[in-house]
Amino acid sequence: QVQLVESGGGLVHAGGSLSLSCGASRLTFRNYAMGWFRRAPGKEREFVAAISWSGTSTYYADTVKGRFTISRDNAKNTAYLQMNSLKAEDTAVYYCAARPGPGTIPYSDSAAYDYWGQGTQVTVSS
Hints:
Layout: E1 3-7, E2 10-13, E3 18-25, E4 32-39, E5 45-51, E6 58-60, E7 68-73, E8 78-83, E9 92-100, E10 115-116, E11 120-125
């Protein structure tokens, strides 16, 4: 059974930083692109960032561009999301997800992802 496990969430003041990690097991990690999504209370799940299997291409939602950085370490089967200059509106449960190959479906489309983590709560106080 493939497992994706997020960690690093917590409570932070506005303007602060958090770093999320997503560890993968029972998955040929280097063959999968990785994405981060989030769901705020009362809102739909939304795309945050994605990174290609090789790490050479990254994609960001406009709302986080310039503040968040996605990366991966294929040797450690781990993806990361560095979040800086956090705002109250970044408060949400953050999920990592894995999708095979490049594909034709945009990285921002959650339907392209086969595996999901359980989520980690990020709360930004204003």
